Input
Amino acid sequence: MHDQRLDRLAEILVGYSARVKKGDLVRIQGDVVGLPLIEAIYERVLIAGGHPFVTAASDAMSEAFYRVATPEQLAYLSPISRYIVDTIDVSIGLWGESNTKSMSGVDPRKQSAAAQARRPISTRFLERAAKGELRWVGTQYPTQSAAQDAEMSLHEYTDFVFRGGLLHLPDPVAAWQAMAERQQRLTDYLDKASEVRVIGKDTDLRVGVQGRKWINCCGHENFPDGEVFTGPVEDAVNGHIRYSFPAVHHGRQCDEIKLTFKNGRVVDLQAAKGLDFLTAMLDQDPGARILGEFAIGTNYSIKKYTCNTLFDEKIGGTCHAALGAAYPETGGKNQSGLHWDMVCDLREPGCRLEVDGRTILEAGRFVESGWPCAQ
Output
């Protein structure tokens, strides 16, 4: 039976998030497992007057690529892919796999090589987005494999996904607009900051942010959303951080990551699981050991870790930092084929965020009433 919430989600993605208008060329991209949502989005783009086209793949295709591709094929940059990123007005991406562990056996050196080959594409995408030439949004399609990772039934996980997008509320768009207002007050404050300090379990990290712009994320790029982020000053990150949750990248999971930074670069890395993969990713290019993003999660409708970064990094009362490429609109300059978000939970007693010596978040709650809070 078709879930009517998919139609509601498609309407919000097309109308509110991506703001599709008449004449827009719109790429809809995802795994074939998400076909019901792809179809709903396709129809909404047509209703909006856009020109939709679909690019779809599968777990089997991705696994086959890394299993069979030659070094020349791994390093190949398709001119078609470049043309698409140069030409489209809107990109709507769906995440969702039949098997979230299908890449677990892939040689990380192959993934690094492919990431480096695609780097001009990702750089161009970010450049066009920063200039306002390209609008994009990504969302999660509920699958059995994602539900298993979250230790939920598919029914429970589907409810979790839609609740994270505030679709349980009478007017989700109004709710996102209200979140945007609260987050704007926070970003206005952070725009004046010089340094953010993260204090938590096995964590004391200082992140220089002077002169950088904080971005208000309220459902236009990620859906669900709920974060504010910036690009740290490249040589001004010092200290150590222990990431509370397992970090997942390209289907590979690393547990209990601990990183030490000196003058902006990772100088020591540890992991209880996946250390070889973590090392390979951080050694792929000079920018991979530098933070390209620092962010604070503000979505208090998301409470549970689910082994899915789209949701985990938005949990209200957490922070996350991405190694690798920065978003140009923040003023960040770091470039890399990597962009890997890792989440630190600050909801326990004794955990806090400080801005220029003032505590702004304590045990997962903001100190100002006009800043993000539970819906």
In short: The mean pLDDT is 95. Residues 108-130 form the longest helix (23 residues). The longest strand covers residues 25-31.
